[in-house]
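[User]
If only I could read backbone structure tokens as easily as an amino acid sequence. I have put the entry right below:
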Amino acid sequence: MNVMNRKNQLFLLFIVFVIMQNFNMKVYAQKDTITYRAQVWVDKTDMERYGGEADFKRNLKKMFDNTNRFWNESKNKFNYYFKFIPVEELYVYDIKGDKDKYEDFRRMAFGEMDTTKADFILFLALDAKNGGLSCGGGGKSGQSVVMCYTKANHNIFTDALYPNQGTYSNLGHEYGHVRGATDLYQYMIAAEDNPISHEKLFPGKCNMGTGFGEWSDYCSALFNYTANMKQLDKNLGEMIFPKKVVIKVVKYGKALENAEINLYGTRAGGKNNNRDVYPKPYITLKTNNRGIVELTDLYSLYHPHKDALNLPPENQFPYSYWFSFLIESKYNNDRKYYWLPDIELQKEYLTTGNETYYITFNL
């Protein structure tokens, strides 16, 4: 009886699996496919250690297939099916056994790239002194370069089976950078690192560093927007903000004139500071006779010029970038707060197209 029950359970699980696979295929079939081509760089000896060119290419394709599953089967609001593929011809370089020479070839990857044949570069260093993945922009042809460093005893093709986290999904995170997304963990602020309102900030679960198997609405909106940019527009950062933020302060339904608005910036963690709310206001404003203040030039607000006033010391301001603002509204003894990460503005703008973002404080 138990054996029969077990067989029935396995059969039902198989049926569910087949139904879900068919459902996914139908969903994907309804979406246009956007393909991004990776020129893959690998050292000659590293490739030979992985079984030679034929085996390496076959396993590389399987890894990309798993990355595509990870991207598209993670919870999302994509308008497209996104597909990353390795181009047929590998770029095989030769460090001749000198691990320090990985750096020479890594720099070369940021040089000219034939954009008729590839869209970005995946640079593999598979016998490195230290492991780690990262992504850099600014290639001479506009390309991003994803860098994957591992030690020789780590196999990038077999370190995890889908859907467990491994190199294939870690590369999926880096491809998020290729498509324009930032690391969301830099937005996380612990309550103890917020000396102003003592509230924590968590930007939500996302494959960009705050979760696994889920894309935030910010990422979905951004990837939809950049879908047809095979190399990102150099002005992308400025293109994805609304024109202005309008802040209104009211009490008992009446607009408050001369209410104080303070913007406290949050900064990334570094050697000399935690991820935190900087305790001095970056900007202080007063509401007009309609109870309103307006913020414009929003890109520059979050990316201040190095000579701007009220910035932290340079060695305590990683990336010279405010990731979020904690907005304080103050009138007499009344205070209220509102978190405004730049990614919230971008998500709202890319999702709705609204050129104005409204905030209302009811004191």
Summary: The chain is about 30% helix and 25% strand. The radius of gyration is 24 Å.
